[in-house]
């Protein structure tokens, strides 16, 4: 009985191993260089799963280890993926022959993340083409010059924020990552929505653009798991109904947009920000 049980376990393990690695000769068959270190079932992203590193750092390591090649094959869990390394080849994919490469590898469930579902970074096909046209117009040189005025105002607020801190004791020690996260959040609120994001107001830290951005962008165990479910294991994400954008953040931005648009309809005062541009398209 014990021998039969052990045999069944061994057979199950062998079958599982072959199932998890059956695609792991995909790039070798096509004579494409493949990165070393693929593990059964997780491919080249074990350190991402164990939260030892970020997705960007995983990609950077693969790039540094294979920079002598124009491209290198990797395994995104069980699925083969191609990392293009050579600048001219990147240009060919992203610009010259983009019509053949527009399909997006990452998709957002519109039922779980309606605010992000139409973002060009997560769309493909006709939806991507439409979004790209809007963004191309929105980021024309003329529009960027207009948005620059909002950025200049934030720079002045940034100076005032630092001056206020320095005026108390004459010297300060700041965490630069936190400091420029506040600056970036304030730029987004001003140039994007035409409102004061209150990111430089440390007395109002509950619901500001800075705290909302930090809520879903700052690395944490929960955020890493959500990232894995949404981008690498979407089938599990659907089962557990895992949204990429936290409900609190989703509600915050919906409220901001609704309030701003209602105010503009009432006052009939157009603004030179990104939200106004999107409303006019």
Automatic annotation (TrEMBL):
The chain crosses the membrane at residues 225-244. Pfam families: p450. Its main location: endoplasmic reticulum. GO terms for molecular function: heme binding; iron ion binding; monooxygenase activity; oxidoreductase activity, acting on paired donors, with incorporation or reduction of molecular oxygen. The keyword Heme applies. It comes from the Eukaryota. This is Cytochrome p450 9e2. It comes from Lasius niger (Black garden ant).
